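Hi R.,

Here's the chain you asked about this morning:
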Amino acid sequence: MWAAFIFIFIVLWLFQLFMTMRQMKHYHQTIREMSKHSSGYLGVGVEKKKLGIGSALIIVTDLEGIVIDCRIMSGVTVFSEFKNCKRFIGLDVFKLNVTDYESKYQLVLEMAVAKIQEQKNRVVSNL
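And the predicted structure, written out as tokens:
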């Protein structure tokens, strides 16, 4: 009986490990794909939770800060994948009021915008 329980536990643990690696590969592939835009800024916001729904948001803007591509991943399991997020496309990230959006977007959006602002400041200071 115990042998069967231990075997099932090991199989499930290995399955989770495999799916986690698959999700991380998808995450890095999406980042690489979105960073291929010829010019502009890329911002990533990630909210990890021990219990509950975590989320990740990737935003690509042009040099003026207008969102040209956006992807979001939200979920509890390792089966979550990035989906196109059209809600922010065409908006100016430097004029966004983060509190205007649902709470599930607020933290990741704030983090992504902060990363874009850092990149813009770095470029401006190097000129």
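The first strand starts at residue 41 and ends at 47.

Let me know if you need anything else.
M.
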